[in-house]
Batch of 4 targets.
Target 1
Amino acid sequence: MAVKIKDVAAHAGVSVGTVSNVLNGRDTVSPGVVERVRAAIDALGYVRNDAARQLRAGRSRAIALVVLDVGNPFFAAVARGAEARAADDGYVVLLGSSGADADQERLYVDQFREQRVAGVLLTPADAGGDVVEHLAAAGIPVVLVDEQTAGDDVCTVSVDDVEGGHLAVAHLLEQGRRRIAFVAGPLSTRQVADRLAGARRAVADVEGASLEVIETDAMTVLAGRAAGERLRERDDRPDAVFAANDLLAVGVLQALTMLGDIRVPDDIALVGYDDIDFAAATVVPLTSVRQPAEALGSTAVDLLLRQLDGGVDPAERQVRFQPELVVRASSGESLRP
């Protein structure tokens, strides 16, 4: 049978209220009584039922974060930012990875809802789904992370991916590259579509420039390597590649350089996206479009806590960051003669 708080009180010879005060760290209990209560807790093996306590209080101290792929260092950085900001206010972050699968996402959301989390931070697997409405109906506030909405009824934090795509390809064009391939990932992903739109805008500004789109079924190193292997087998290779994220770019780089007959950037320049931690540590340091991943996570938590504490002004619900191009060796300035 589970030990209850009244058992601890009887063992220590104090009231239930005194035990509660000790458990909650209140300084109204004398040191000697605190020591007796803690000794009783240890002797009986008492464990506080936080779920029941939260149910009575009406609010959990946990925030859920559901991302597309926790194996992607970009989302790991988002989670770091969220955890740091949540800890400032005494909250913890519970993490789920949907694998970009709407059914898995719904499973996580339902589980977190049953645990009465204070709120949910969500990178939706299906931007057109009903998860936000599902949570709103349960009275659980939501912030969309790395996503945008047309209206101002939902809080969002995002990055201008159209501008990011434009930055990447405009840089390659400035280096004299004209035959550019975009290794895309799934084009149904909003972020990929926006990056492609920005890339096309840059190409449209330069006479004689072209953009080839190479779609992959995932945004992973393996998918990038497969795309890079297809490119290296061609006689009509592009002279530059823009990859929709750094994992794809790393895979492309591996495939192009593995036999030593193609040089990056001399033969093919390469730009990635996200500027993950090891972008600078690849065999040829990777030029990348930097997203402020930790700021996305911390800002999302801040918006969620403001919702819990009274609401967010409609004009402040949509936070959009600007990307930054970080130039490294993979997009060198000179073309091979």
Target 2
Amino acid sequence: MHKSMKSYVAMLLGTAVLSQSIAYSASAAQTAVPNALKSSAAAGFALENLGSIALKGLVSVKLTGMDVFAQPGGNILTYTLNYYNGSGSNADLIDYFSKVTTPGGTVVQGKPVTKDASIQTIPAKSSRTVTYYVNIGKAAQVSGIKVTLFRFDFNSSNYQKNLGGFTIPGKFSTIVPVGQSGKLMMGELPIIAKAESLQKIQMNGKVYLKAGISLTNTGTMALRDPGYKTYLKSAGGSVFELKADDAGGSYTVQPKEKKTIYYLKCTP
């Protein structure tokens, strides 16, 4: 017998850059999320409010994304840094690194995710985003987390110089309330993403969940499917990978265009 579901969270991952909360009742198969459904998540703070940190000269960095994913071997925190180089020459990232400090005092150096590991240089007059991950053990919330930027400095006793940090306040939530959208970077393009719908479909004796996530390309170049994985997270914390509804699974979103991508999951 199909298990009752109180709510699900549809999550679009560029290694975890956005989560959208969708409340859904299993007893009422609806084609869209009703406007009356409310999310308990707070949405009073944006990471962009934390400002930027100067690395050197006209080179700076902003924290643009953060999320936590439960894993048996310790929860994984991902965070995305956007580096901007306003100078007239290339800026090397090899001299810089970041560390995460948990509310409990654990300090872990971040590692770039596989897709971003090759980004070593920020060309002149341009920006690049790099997503990092750390194992934060049993910590489950991003509030109180601090991301600190360092530069190698052989004149210091520990060979590193603290350049400043971003501390996540308690009012920040990684969940975007129902009916609202979130900003993220997919590659180098600014995207507005929104969980549009969640359907329950019964077919051939099986129950499927169909999630619709819209992407609005606010950049100046076409967004081509970057191959990010998409997941559905249950209210109980279970995470399921979704598959694109279209057989090919690829898409293109032109500048200023809004397109909804649909994903499927066969529930147990």
Target 3
Amino acid sequence: MTTPSATTPSSSPTSATDPVPVPTGGAPRRFGSLGPVGLVLAGGVSVQFGGALAVTLMPRAGALGVVSLRLLVAALVLLLVCRPRLRGHSRADWGTVVVFGIAMSAMNGLFYQAVDRIPLGPAVTLEVLGPLALSVVSSRRALNFVWAGLALAGVFLLGGGGFGDLDPVGVAFALGAGAMWAAYIVFSARTGRRFPQADGLALAMAVGALLFLPLGLAESGTKLFDPVTFGLGAGVAVLSSVLPYTLELLALRRLPASTFAILMSLEPALACAAGFLVLHQALTALQAAAIALVIGASMGAVRTQVGRGKAAVPPSAS
């Protein structure tokens, strides 16, 4: 059962970088025991291993078909689990959910178009530039510029130091996915403020699925409903959509967008780990150094945020 305060926006404007308390409820408390950083890391691991599974699915369903299955199955699961209330929301609430759903579906669609044209590593590297740009734009502390710059250096090292030999269309798709990723971060945070638990995510996923399903059917037709294809698509949806988006939405209620965006720079490192464990892709010394830079930047961002939170807490009277 939702409370009026959980579904009605605050009368005062809220910045995208302001942390928001987690509403009371069973699911956020259970997931929240991991801590906001743990939620982000768990979501990142899940999405990268889901991406490895998606590689096996693309020959069967195509890039657009994979996205359609991801969004469709994820929407069905979330709607059944969350059973979000459709009444009692303001026009601004619904507008936020619709934009969140558009950003989510566009982010997935553009990314799979990119990996259809360029290798996965450079695609993820280019995509991460969107959250990194968001971290710089939304940051309120000069030190965050240092962490963003360090993460950016690691991201470019992970991409091999240059992208001149890549298909320019694929590069454009990856950069577009990065822009949509930044929009996803902003509107995921706003959705988490306006809707209790994962209700807003379930509604946004349904919006994205409705928008993308015609594209998937146009590309793959009835192949999408082949039992094996649909089963693999369900696995991709759980690993790449249901778990990570739910965990990230809950994390954004307690992390500012700037810190969350720098944590997202861990995605290329997690992708390399998934590639090594699932696809047996070995890391070079340059890639290992890049991962160290990215992880160092993420740890620095977390330590900065923790220190800021401690400074904001008044000492006890005891």
Target 4
Amino acid sequence: MYRTELGQLAGQRFAKGHATGNDFVLIADPEAQLDINAEQVAALCHRRFGIGGDGLIRAVPTSRVPGYEGQFLEHPKAYWFMDYRNNDGSIAEMCGNGVRAFAHYLIAEGLVSLQVGQSFQIGSRAGVKEITRLADGYAVNLGPWGLIFEQEAAEKSVDSMVKPRGWEQALPALSITMGNPHTVVALPDVQMLEELDLFEAPEVSPVPANGTNVEFVVPSEPLIEEDGVAQVQMRVHERGVGETLSCGTGACAAAAAVRYWARSTALINQWAVKVPGGVVGVEFRGNAEGGEDTILSGPADLVARGIIGSE
């Protein structure tokens, strides 16, 4: 499979970027000419036989993405669409770290001009997202979070069971949507978090309709520091990828779950989520519709450029 014919991808310029260790192959397709299949994505993202990455991101005009032409008509400022594929070639709705890497790539390529403090919009399979450039990275408004199994969560504060590899007993969990699905498990201490075997996907029951990312989180003690920011530590197994150093939407889901569980004692809006690749910020902010949006912030970098080979 690693000798997969690259087709139109051969000879294409690419960049390699990451956001808190969540890494991506990035390519620009301004004329929407590339027809990329799952096997080609998996070959490019393979860490031994390809460029290597947790996923591939294609920058393509929103108006040229089949099924999303209407998104551009409703939001004409969202010129660029983030076409995201997981490491195994499967299509994902959203990637919070990927959005930051995508924004950084668009600016570096001269496809978007953005100064610190300015914002712009992009199209995605999870809807239009607004990105703001910060002095030390980017903040993306991922929109509202939600409960996947709302009735069960309201009744029990959990809605599913998760069994990590090598465990005899499953653990209770809460299913959160950030435009993509997540299942969050709380652990009592950091040692248990560090000893988890996430080489294989944990068993989840019930599984959300399109599969799920699984986050294991340990709240700090005390949860809220003197600066008013809640602190949690997290590891994640991403669907279609495996364990990654970071997951932006997963960090948001983890903060939302802990916040949901702590709702009887506090409504906490500022969070710092420590992942193996660094720290990301999560903010819950009221919106004009009377609900609240989820803002993810953190750094993004480009580390390499090249041309995809044909041999």
